[in-house]
Write a structure and sequence with these properties.
Elements lengths: L2 H34 L2 H61 L1 E3 H17 L2 H19 L5 E3 L2 H21 L9 H20 L9 E9 L2 E8 L4 E5 L9 H12 L5 H6 L2 H14 L1
Antiparallel strand pairs: 1-2, 3-4, 4-5
Length: 287
């Protein structure tokens, strides 16, 4: 039995004692006074009953106050832990979306997030995150590689799932009694899609005359050209293709592993494509 349950049990016992004293006084006080005949003895008995009643009532109120304080501390602690967990899940998913790929290290973290969610989250929150969990696992299972690229359509599906998850989280945290309305959810989804399209569109081909450095690398049976331009932009073009690959960092990871260039997963998360691309071109040209 934990402290809160023990406090509640003491409070229940005290409440029962108050009820018994109240009934006893109501039924037996008048005959007792008549038997004693009033006077000093009657006054003493009346004072004693009053003192006993006040003591028991005070005990009940103190127990109730302790119970409320314990409930408040518990609620605050659970709230803080929920916020940390929900933020961790959002950040982990954000990392996957930002670099456009799912790594073995990232996919390994998901089961523990789900287990923690079962401990702290509301059933509706768990149900919504399960959709995200299943979708990300299906994407990773679609390839035998340790790093799997996420397509634009898959990104949007994850965005939608995570938006629904976030909506359930805000209700569970008590930030709002209602989930995000259907109209507002649609507007948000459309805004996310436009943002994603704008980002995807930035990896367009650039003019050959603006190339300042490049290097070739063979990886996975294909030959890639890593190209750096005057404005420091990086493009990676596969074999004889004219359009750059959509996810440069995914190919960079594979080239890094193939040539043992020494970049870590932390480097790929913290450094932008331009920085890694420039360093990679210099290193490959020295081999």
């Amino acid at each position: 039995m934990n402290k809160l349950q023990s406090t509640r049990k003491r409070g229940d016992r005290t409440l029962i004692a108050i009820l018994i004293i109240g009934v006893a006084v109501y039924i037996g006080f008048t005959p007792l006074f008549e038997l004693i005949g009033g006077g000093v003895a009657g006054a003493v008995i009346g004072s004693s009953f009053g003192a006993i009643f006040v003591i028991v009532l005070t005990m009940y109120l103190l127990n109730k106050q302790t119970e409320i304080e314990q409930e408040t501390k518990k609620s605050e602690r659970v709230f803080d832990e929920k916020v940390k967990l929900y933020q961790y899940i959002l950040n982990t998913t954000r990392d996957m979306i930002e670099d456009g790929s799912i790594s073995l290290d990232e996919i390994t973290k998901l089961p523990f997030a789900m287990i923690n969610l079962q401990m702290l989250g509301d059933d509706s929150v768990i149900e919504n995150y399960k959709s995200v969990f299943v979708r990300i696992n299906d994407i990773f299972a679609s390839s035998e590689q340790d790093i799997v690229e996420i397509s634009s359509e898959q990104k949007m599906s994850i965005f939608d799932d995570m938006s629904k998850f976030a909506s359930k989280c805000r209700v569970d945290l008590g930030i709002s009694e209602n989930e995000v309305g259907d109209d507002l959810f649609k507007e948000t989804s459309d805004a996310l899609k436009k943002s994603n399209d704008a980002i995807e569109g930035r990896n367009k081909p650039l003019a050959e005359k603006d190339i300042v450095a490049q290097a070739k690398a063979s990886c996975g049976g294909s030959i890639y050209r890593i190209i750096r331009y005057k404005d420091a932009s990086i493009r990676i073009i596969k074999d004889v293709d004219t359009d750059p690959v959509k996810n440069s960092k995914t190919i960079m990871r594979e080239i890094n592993e193939e040539y043992n260039l020494g970049f870590t997963e932390e480097n790929f998360k913290k450094l932008n494509t331009r920085t890694i691309g420039k360093r990679m071109i210099d290193m490959l040209n020295k081999l």
